[in-house]
Design brief:
Three copies of one chain form a homotrimer. Chain A is α/β, with parallel strands linked by helices and about 180 residues long. Helix content of chain A is about 45%, strand content about 25%. Chain A has a seven-stranded mixed β-sheet, with helices on both faces. In chain A, a hairpin with a 2-residue loop joins strand 6 and strand 7. The radius of gyration of chain A is 15 Å and the shape is globular. At the A-B interface, helix 6 of A face helix 6 and strand 7 of B.
Chain lengths: ~180, ~180, ~180
């Protein structure tokens, strides 16, 4: 298991169904801090609803929950504080939401990094590794892959810990 | 190279053409146990036939071979024994076969884990990492990715060793 | 950071936007050797032009630059020498170019490995991990994935160092 943090930034990367959310939740619960779950998911359809429900069931009632598809930097500035652990699940959905909203991606990434730099307490960010398959056919998917990859690099550069999860097992890249 | 086992469960994960089968075969041969190769592949077309033949050629004549597309838990219960090393190649094809047969996936995964728990001798399971690309367009591929990811987590949790192979080189996640 | 080399072969693998090129450039610059950048990219369209320009801007003026879409083994034989560090960016585009040119893939891979075996000075090769997503629908993409995977295994087997980059952070597989 990872070295326990009670403040700072942790990035948890992994493929689909790699166990990254469960790992991140464990990090937060073991910190002993007051847990806040921030969902970036926008529920479009039944498939998404099922996924969100499965995540919700696993978390225990001690979690406070917020939904924030777009204004993640503002939320962190407002909510992060000593004694609290915020779990953001997940950055890749945030990137998707920014693209759909035609937001200025570079500006938003800079805002997120600035917010993380200024945060008190612990912030654990979950994100999907999406760049290790074949180059996608359509430009939007390629752009998404590029944005996600750049965000991972930006966040990893300032993070105190970076973990890559495969088959539920962590590989520590930093920290 | 990995620490040598003569009993227990080993999971060997990796991308396409990562060298995972060759690594798993080496583990089995170095164990000194009697090797049994279990293919889950169902040969549909010439492309598949070519792949199966390439694998077959690399293995030496000392291997016993069985084909079992669906009833993997039963096969393990029947065939696993002290002094024997079983190589299952691969779990992702088994998942595909279960989906095509409209089997109850959760039940089958539970049966496999129960069988592995009860096994004597060595069982080495090869599987494809398929969850680190862009989210696939079609639901069946997303379901497949989810099933494969969940199975990897289940098997990794009970395995004695888990290795991730890239460019023919192992990264030990557990053991 | 990786142990510093002034001669030999280094393979730098990673997904899209993983930071692999920046990592490879750093390795070359920190070697203190005279840097030569070899681009395998063939510029087809504006999207590619933008990517190439972004890479070019990041590199400093001290770099010499060559473009070689196909005859990589010949270039290495001709240009590699003591005191020089060659950065090849990237092998996956070279594989694509070979496939489009209907070259004999196995022969070319053997030539590359022979050239690398004979090289003086440092050669750092960047390549994309493309085999960890869902099996692609079309045969050409599956063939490409197979070729790339086999090349990675071949080069990794003879390399002095192999690094896997995720979120800008290196994981050393060898060396």
């Amino acid at each position: 298991m990872a070295r326990l943090l009670t403040s700072g930034t942790v990035l948890v990367l992994g493929g689909a169904r790699s166990g990254k959310s469960a790992f991140a939740e464990k990090l937060v619960l073991e910190s002993g801090l007051q847990p806040l779950y921030v969902a970036t998911a926008q529920v479009w359809d039944d498939e998404m609803r099922t996924r969100v429900e499965a995540h919700r069931k696993r978390r225990q009632t001690q979690w406070q929950t917020m939904e924030e598809p777009l204004e993640l930097p503002k939320l962190l500035k407002r909510e992060a504080r000593q004694g609290r652990a915020i779990l953001v699940d997940c950055l890749t959905l945030w990137v998707t939401n920014l693209m759909l909203a035609e937001a200025n991606i570079s500006d938003r990434f800079a805002s997120l990094c600035a917010a993380l730099h200024g945060c008190e307490g612990l912030v654990v960010l979950v994100s999907n590794e999406v760049g290790q398959g074949i180059v996608p056919d359509n430009k939007m998917a390629r752009d998404f892959r590029d944005h996600a990859g750049r965000l991972h690099q930006d966040v990893a550069a300032l993070a105190d810990q970076v973990h890559f999860i495969a088959a539920g097992l962590p590989l520590t890249l930093k920290g």
